[in-house]
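Worked example 3 (structure in, sequence out).
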């Protein structure tokens, strides 16, 4: 345990700092650190049995952080643009990924479903970093992009709940009759509904009360332990009592705490530990990645990359532009969607553990994620250049052909 923690943190720091120096997302460095200590590269090999358990803790704290920053008010403010955009794009990109996986790669329908879902969701971490560096978080365009990814995250949380329920029908472990499939999904949704009802009735009163009483003690250590106990306890309890995923329990624990007046203090107290275990999650994902697929299946890697960066950007721009009527928002969202990240890793790992996704599919998703995160700053740089060119054109007067009066060109943004 000490050895894998030391190797994971040291290599993640080295490669994360190198990626940051190259103006890439540190996520690329964390995954590459996992590749270095994985079984597919020479040298030190980390403990393959401990890494998934550390990764599970990372997923719990990662999803807890997503819930802690989830705001219904922010989502409602952009519901007319973000909600329809996300609900149009997710089925479209999932269908495209499924069609490519089944018809071109020759995979099963279950593998195609996981592959399509993984390619349909972008990384919130990568998006926020890109928006923060450009000062776009508090702009209208930034709020639409963030709201769209919040909707995507919510849909993926539901997918994480339903995939284990339907996995048996795709792997042949259960008879795939429509009635039994509907029954299984119905039972799963009832369990989720019971858990949500319990959290909204008991949890919404009990959890903030516990946190409030702990904050009143004035002990920072107790506050940190309280928040961690809530996150881990709710996640484990939801899985044990209701059969739902750790991720859903942790997400709801975060959303409940978000409504408390001490939510910011809870976020600050747990941020270092959440970041540390999130890094271990990305390292463990890299340990499962076989880099030989880049040489053995370059065409499949290129197709995966093309779907993420090319097709998603193209359709994302036109969908958002049609809904919002703003080319600038369309360009920003299309650049936002041209990468995949943490939820794609979680879906790929879950699909692999459920035997829905082949090992090559897991490697293709990871390769597409790494390449798209590397390419994403280049797309944002093109967006910045486009915005500067439009701004320069708008600020310089030009003479109208049909009039002797000076006029200014209309902005496309």
């Amino acid at each position: 345990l000490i050895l894998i923690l030391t190797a994971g943190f040291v290599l993640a720091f080295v490669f994360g700092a190198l990626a940051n120096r190259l103006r890439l997302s540190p996520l690329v460095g964390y995954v590459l650190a996992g590749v270095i200590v994985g079984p597919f590269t020479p040298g030190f090999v980390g403990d393959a049995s401990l890494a998934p358990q550390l990764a599970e803790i990372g997923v719990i704290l990662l999803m807890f952080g997503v819930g802690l920053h989830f705001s219904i008010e922010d989502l409602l403010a952009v519901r007319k643009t973000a909600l329809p955009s996300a609900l149009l794009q997710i089925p479209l990109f999932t269908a495209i990924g499924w069609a490519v996986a089944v018809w071109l790669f020759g995979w099963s329908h279950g593998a195609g479903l996981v592959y399509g879902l993984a390619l349909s969701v972008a990384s919130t971490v990568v998006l926020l970093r890109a928006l923060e560096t450009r000062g776009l978080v508090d702009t209208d365009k930034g709020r639409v992009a963030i709201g769209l990814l919040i909707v995507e995250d919510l849909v993926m949380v539901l997918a994480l709940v339903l995939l284990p329920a339907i996995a048996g029908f795709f792997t042949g472990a259960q008879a795939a009759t429509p009635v039994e499939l509907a029954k299984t999904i119905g039972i799963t949704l009832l369990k989720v509904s019971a858990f949500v009802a319990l959290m909204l009735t008991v949890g919404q009163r009990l959890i903030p009360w516990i946190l409030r009483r702990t904050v009143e003690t004035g002990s920072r250590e107790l506050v940190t332990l309280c928040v961690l106990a809530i996150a881990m306890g709710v996640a484990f309890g939801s899985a044990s009592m209701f059969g739902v995923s750790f991720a859903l329990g942790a997400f709801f624990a975060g959303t409940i705490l978000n409504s408390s007046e001490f939510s910011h203090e809870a976020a600050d107290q747990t941020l270092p530990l959440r970041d540390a275990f999130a890094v271990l999650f990305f390292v463990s994902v890299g340990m499962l990645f076989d880099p030989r697929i880049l040489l053995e299946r370059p065409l499949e890697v290129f197709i995966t990359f093309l779907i993420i960066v090319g097709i998603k950007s193209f359709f994302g721009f036109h969908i958002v532009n049609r809904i919002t009527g703003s080319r600038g928002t369309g360009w920003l969202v299309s650049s936002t969607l041209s990468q995949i990240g943490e939820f794609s890793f979680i879906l790929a790992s879950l699909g692999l553990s459920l035997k829905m996704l082949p090992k090559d599919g897991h490697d293709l998703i990871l390769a597409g994620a790494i390449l798209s995160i590397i390419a994403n700053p280049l797309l944002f740089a093109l967006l910045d250049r486009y915005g500067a060119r439009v701004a320069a054109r708008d600020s310089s007067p030009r003479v109208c052909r049909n009039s002797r009066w000076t006029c200014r060109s209309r902005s496309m943004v």
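Notes: The mean pLDDT is 80. The first helix runs from residue 2 to 21.
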